[in-house]
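Students often ask what a 'structure token' actually looks like in practice. Rather than answer in the abstract, let us consider histidine kinase, a protein of 529 residues. Its sequence is given first.
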Amino acid sequence: MVVGGRPLEGDAFRSRLVWLVLFRTVAASLSLVITLARLLLQPTQELSGADTLSLGVIVSAYVSTLVVGLRLRRGRGGLLDAWVQVIGDVVIATGLVYLSGGADSPLTFLYSLSVIGAAVVLDRRGALWAAAASVLCFATLVMGARFLGSVPGGLMPPSRVMFVLGSNALALVLIAVLAGYLSRQLSVAGGALSAREADLQRLGRLQQQILSSMPSGLVTCDAGHRITYVNPAGCLILQVDATQVVGTDVEALLPGVLGLAPRSPRSELVVGKGLKRRILGLSVTPLDGAPGSLLMVFQDLTQLRRMEDDLKRADRLASLGALSAQLAHELRNPLASMRGSAQLLAQDAQDAMAQKLTNILIREADRLARLVEDFLRFARPPTPVLQQVALASLLTETVDMLRVDPLARDVRVEMATPVVMAVSVDPDQLRQVLINLVRNAFQAAGARGHVKVALTRAENEARIRIWDSGGSITEEMMGHLFEPFFTTRDGGTGLGLSTAHSIIRAHGGFIRVRSNPEEGTEFVVGLPL
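Now compare that with the structural description of the same chain:
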């Protein structure tokens, strides 16, 4: 749509038309007030025909305004409605001026309102056309009063007629020019403001898209250290809901972060406990323009640090394994010779004491031989003989077998194997791992404890979860848990977990553990599918 030589958007034009409807409503209300005031100030008498017509014209203005308003509400308002409104304003103003005294009417200001209304909706060109129509109608009304004598108030002298016509025409033209200029300036300013608002909205959407797609977590806080924003990646890393943490103290979400303020290029921060424990690589930067406010950007380094620990542990275990294999090999031959000699001595022993001592030598030699075999199994686990195994069945059979173990007495055992999957494993070696982990769980849970064994699936791997309610593994013990000869159990060799770790690594899998007194201990065994 084009108004005043310039393109005007449909929504913007309808907005102007709405303002014109409101303007007409105000003008009609003012006219009604003035008419009623005039009638009330007159001596009490019945309404004359002119008074009745004046009220009818005002009512018709209200009705036409209502019709246009309804069309606008339905989205049908257009340029034709605007011209009808403007022409109707001029006609209504002429009727009211005629009925209220002609050239001496107090309602001649209605022509000015018509011109201003035209400027609002049709710009300067529409205002000039409305002014011309108003001057023509007013001139016709005044000249009709002179030549026909049909306007109340009687005849006017020629000089008076020229003065009234000239002054009103000049006033209407000036009002049209001024209102048109202001309307044009308002349109230009409104267009520029709309463009800036659209740019700001685009920038806001772009900023929100950038913040939402960032893989790094981002948290901002104000000078009072209250959280003002957390991006989606930050919520995912910290496992929180943004609506719940915004407005809370930043130390509750990131304990120790204020100790890094006001500026920290790169630091590591440990947050959460147990299953929610995270290692964050974090930087803190003050926000410009907001004294005391901070911006914290962080990444989740938990998996990276876990992989580093696994690599260090694997390297350390490889070195220990090589040394252990060599040492075990050197011990086997002397042990065999010692046992053989003890057997010969036992055969030639003449008294009970000698027999008893040789039996002790044989028993201890056998115990050392078993220990050497366990050592060799850890150092050089046999190559797995892989075959397709129904993992749920193997897990159920192993746990059912262990239910009669003395360690399982008074321990509540739960099984959850809803997932049916077949994996390529060595069933004997995997059963050895499961026996070791489940018996450890029984021992850690203790009497009236609770143990859960579950089978789940995650992407391309099967996961066996063994949980106990003990939660007795400390942070200091975590780093040595899979090392040989490390044990917290009386009489233990410290080779069970290290052997299990070696077996699972030989299968291309992993063993991870999480533990705290509140949430218990969970070993997770991952096996590739």
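One point worth highlighting: The radius of gyration is 48 Å. Ask yourself how you might have guessed this from the sequence alone, and why that guess would often be unreliable.
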